[in-house]
Amino acid sequence: MAATITPSLRSALERLKHAGSVNGLLLGWRRQILINLLPYEDFRAERALHMLLDAGGHFSSGGDREVKSYWFGFEGVFALALFHGESTLLILHTQAAEVDFLRSAATTFLDDTQLLVESVLQPGEEPVTQVLI
Amino acid sequence: METSPLPLQLFTLREGLVSSTADQTLVDAFAADFQGLRHFGVKLGESLELGPPWTGTLQEDDFTLNFAYFDAGTSSLDPGAGAMIGEKRPFFELLNRINELDA
To answer: What is the separation, in whole angstroms, between the first and last Cα of chain A?
Structure first.
């Protein structure tokens, strides 16, 4: 089951990669990487994912705050991060003016793919037929 | 009775100080969030080898806060500006708004 759904999730993420000036994407669930389409090895992507989750933990430590998105600008590249349930999406892009369009597209992606994410995490069990012997 | 959302508040960053015409409580609140946001931006930049961020924004359902350094650099002593507002605002619009303070 998961084997057939994972490509759907990946292709949905790859479609998002063609939106605007995107040059990398990372989809995480809790503290693990689901799909890494960043131009970085997994250990760096994982470190970035953990950093974003730690930032969320920092700001919510008072109990009444929930940061839904971050956007950082670095030399030549921007990093947009969104949270949806236990999923995290990180987008690297190069045009600042595209950030709000990308945020909208990414929010739609996260809304639409929650079932796919859940299916990847909890693949349905094959039906089992039993006979009494 | 509903309280009205926090209106746009602007802040300047210079030589390690946050300044604003807003009251002390708001300046303290901005300074705390700014330091946290900048800290995690630096950590994210380190993890992806991107260097320190020159701008950062965080957004909740009913709150947006950002900062940006001007051209001089991105150390904590360099000049910059920030804003916070009690609503969701487009990121790019808010960045342009504080960049206007670099005049």
So the answer is: 30
Q: What is the pLDDT of residues B1-41, one digit of tens each?
A: 567 888 999 999 999 999 999 999 999 999 999 999 999 99
- In B, which residues are within 8 Å of A26 by CB distance? none
| φ, ψ of residue B83 in degrees (nearest 5) | -150, 155
Residues of chain A in contact with residue B37, where contact means CB-CB under 8 angstroms, are 55, 70
Under an 8 A CB cutoff, do A72 and B91 touch? no
Distance from CA of B63 to the nearest CA of A (A): 9
CB B53 within 8 A of CB B45: yes
Ranges of chain A with pLDDT below 70:
1-6, 123-133
Q: How far apart are CA A100 and CA A116, in angstroms?
A: 25
Query: How buried is B3 (Cβ within 10 angstroms: 0-12 exposed, 13-18 middle, 19+ buried)?
Result: exposed
DSSP-derived secondary structure letter, A54: H
Contact call for A55 and B57, based on CB within 8 A: no
Test mutation, B48, B74, B88, chain A, max A CBs within 10 A? B48
Q: Are A26 and A48 in contact (CB under 8 A)?
A: yes
For residue B63, which of B94, B103, B27 has the smallest C-alpha distance?
B94
The distance of Cα A122 from the centroid of its chain, to the nearest Å, equals 17
Q: Do B92 and A96 touch (CB under 8 A)?
A: yes
Architecture of domain A2-121: 2-Layer Sandwich (3.30)
Report ipTM for this prediction. Answer: 0.94
Q: What's the maximum distance between 2 C-alpha atoms anywhere in chain A?
A: 70
